[in-house]
Amino acid sequence: MEEKQPEKQPKKKRRVLRWLIFTLVGIFIFAAFTVGGYAYYLYEKGEKAVAESYDASRDVKSSLREEEVEPLEDNLSILIVGIDDSTERAQGSNHARSDALMLATLNNADKTIDLVSIPRDSYTFIPSVNYATKINHAHAFGGIDSTIETVQNLLNVPVDYYVEVNFNAFIDVVNALDGIEVDVPYDLHELDENDKRTVNLKKGTQVVDGREALALARTRHQDSDIERGKRQQMILEAITDKAMSTSSLTKYSSLITALGDNMTTNMSFDTMKSLFVYMQSGSPSIKSLSLEGDDDMSTGVYYYKLRQDNVLSVRQTLQKQLALPEDKEITLENSYLVDHVTKKDSASSNE
């Protein structure tokens, strides 16, 4: 039986999507706004890197859509998945559990973004295995397809695009920038990327390298998941600020390579360019949503049991953002704990 101590789940609103999108997408596109032969080289390299990370097997059209969305024309959603696919923790990326899940919905009419962070221990139905457990298990059961299907079942909105990034991206990107400046909240003696306790940091503002930045982002032994979220936001902001600075222009080749090697997405280069335009036109307003719940150890295994009224509220907000019909209530047909197809079959067999 899996043993896990209860963890407090983040409840404060986060505003990390802008930084993550600028980091993942802006680095590829920035060269288009510079001059000279080097800029052309960077643009070509960025296009090649995106092509190499492009998942051609994943249909862009969500199973909950009748037609494929068009960036800059339609409202759309992006699922950001962070995974640890190290051999120490998993058997490759297809078997790794997701460590971070965020869904962003973009509304083109009013240029707003609604962002919901999904607690990784949330108890919900996993369609690929036909039972409920922690949502971060979905990726281990069936990779990105299972993760997307599970998120769609939970929130009852389509997932149009996804960006999957592994922990190596943190290390490689920070190292490509020759380190980033962060404020370490306390003395840290933490595991490195190989799960060896070799990262030692003193409290205070300092420049950290990639392995140190990853350890700072992952640790949660001395505080809560709320503080962990704050640290991850701080690190993403530090990465973005340095990556977008003029002094980092000569490092863009390494940055593009680092991201291309550690990212998988169903977004094409043209789609990324459209999203970059979206992010720059009018500084979109970002609203963060929380999935609230309660700690549960009744089975001896820790779960985060989501509150049904809150799930409904978040669903309605996201559905409104995407201009989709809003759920009036959570019923047998749209429950996030049981697959609606299974329930229909069950209901029919009992009639």
Structure description:
This protein is α+β, with helices and mostly antiparallel strands. About 40% of the residues lie in helices and about 20% in strands. It has 10 helices and 14 strands. It has helices at about 15-30, 35-55, 135-155, 170-175, 210-220, 225-245, 250-260, 270-280, 310-320, 340-350, and strands at about 75-85, 100-105, 110-115, 125, 130-135, 160-165, 180-185, 190, 200, 205-210, 265, 285-290, 295, 305. The strands form 5 sheets. A 6-stranded mixed sheet has the order 11-6-1-2-3-12, with helices on both faces. Helix 1 (about 15-30) runs parallel beside helix 6 and helix 4 (about 170-175) crosses helix 5. The protein is globular. It starts with 16 loop residues before the first helix and ends with a helix.
Describe this structure in a few short sentences.
The protein has 351 residues and is an alpha+beta fold. The chain has helices spanning 17-29, 37-53, 137-155, 168-176, 210-218, 225-243, 252-261, 269-280, 308-321, 340-350; strands at residues 76-83, 98-107, 112-117, 123-126, 131-134, 161-166, 180-184, 188-190, 199-201, 204-208, 263-265, 285-290, 293-296, 303-306. The strands form 5 sheets. Strands 11-6-1-2-3-12 form a 6-stranded mixed sheet, sandwiched between helices.
Task: Set out the fold topology.
Blueprint: H1 17-29, H2 37-53, E1 76-83, E2 98-107, E3 112-117, E4 123-126, E5 131-134, H3 137-155, E6 161-166, H4 168-176, E7 180-184, E8 188-190, E9 199-201, E10 204-208, H5 210-218, H6 225-243, H7 252-261, E11 263-265, H8 269-280, E12 285-290, E13 293-296, E14 303-306, H9 308-321, H10 340-350
Parallel strand pairs: 1-6, 3-12
Antiparallel strand pairs: 1-2, 2-3, 4-5, 6-11, 7-10, 8-9, 13-14
Helix pairs in contact: 1-6, 1-8, 2-7, 4-5, 4-7, 5-6
